[in-house]
Prior knowledge:
Family: Belongs to the MnmA/TRMU family.
Catalytic activity: S-sulfanyl-L-cysteinyl-[protein] + uridine(34) in tRNA + AH2 + ATP = 2-thiouridine(34) in tRNA + L-cysteinyl-[protein] + A + AMP + diphosphate + H(+)
Largest sheet: 6 strands, antiparallel, barrel
CATH architecture of the largest domain: 3-Layer(aba) Sandwich
CATH class of the largest domain: Alpha Beta
Number of helices: 7
Helix content: 10-25%
InterPro entries: MnmA-like, MnmA-like_C, MnmA-like_central, MnmA-like_central_sf, Rossmann-like_a/b/a_fold
Distance between the termini: 53 Å
Shape: globular
Low-confidence stretches: 44-51
Enzyme class: transferase
Organism: Aeromicrobium halocynthiae
Amino acid sequence: MSAPLRxxxxxxxxxxSAVAAARAVDAGHxxxxxxxxxxxxxxxxxxGARGCCSIEDxxxxxxxxxxxxxxxxxxxxxxxxxxxxxxxxxxxxxxxRTPNPxxxxxEKIKFAAVxxxxxxxxxxxxxxxxxxxxxxxxxxLELHRAVDAGKDQSxxxxxxxxxxxxxxxxxxxxxxxxxxxxxxxxxxxxVAHKPDSHDICFVADGDNAGWLADKLGRRxxxxxxxxxxxxxxxxxxxxxxxxxxxxxxxxxxxDDGKPRFVLDIEPVSGTVTVGPREHLAVGALxxxxxxxxxxxxxxxxDCTVQLRAHGSEHxxxxxxxxxxxxxxxxxxxxxxxxxxxEGIAPxxxxxxxxxxxxxxxxxxxxxxSARADRAGTR
Length: 378
């Protein structure tokens, strides 16, 4: 058995983080539960199964720590969360991109600010309830997919560096969710059957467009077809995402009678372009600010990529490159998708896999259509 460690258990108030903390205690580690207060104005109760930053969640985390017999602290990280996650989310949508705030939170809050504070206080690492696995590989520690494919969260952990992984612990990676709930019940944890949180934690009612409208105000523009014909006006391009079908309210049907989807968003003019589903197919993309979970690939890599949190894997070839990005020189990757993907937008993350191992991630800046008659980018 390895030597006991002093660990911070990030306890969200849900079943997964509670059982993860319990398993760390069972392994003989000196565990302190920490709940992150991320909201400046936390709601007393969540709306349905949304959110993870309410007063109710903090109380649930405290009760779980009491059952486990471990110290419990609350760390106020609302300022860091607002600056690094919420403000970034608003700015990305204003720029016509589609961010993933969970990746941003993992990168900047849970495995940067929290880990930095924990190490500064003399702890050895952080335990979380993420479904992912850490394994020793030939070149060091590796991040792998979880056993429970339906709960796998390796995608949102693809932003972690080798140094951060060295101080991370994911006790649930080898378990399935039903077993975790059953274990919580056996341990007497009241959160055993608490619903999982979904959607964006700081948008309590799940109405992203309404929330963004409050932040960004009315920014009128038009919805057009691929020929430039204006179909209607709108109050803000931030209410739309690439691949969106519902809520377009176009009125006049397409000539072929088929549904139309958002193909492109131009944030300066506020123009939203729509067209048929087959025109969503992406065959290649470019992404910047790569973060590698170990040594970066030296050459082209035959691999798979995942393009959204619960999306499918796509066979791909990934090439690390250097090149101009937004007027500056920055590291980047170019990705050829052997299996075209739909609804891929700038701002999303591409996470690279070698089998079950996470190689790294990057932020998508441009995509290239898979259509033979349209090799342009968006």
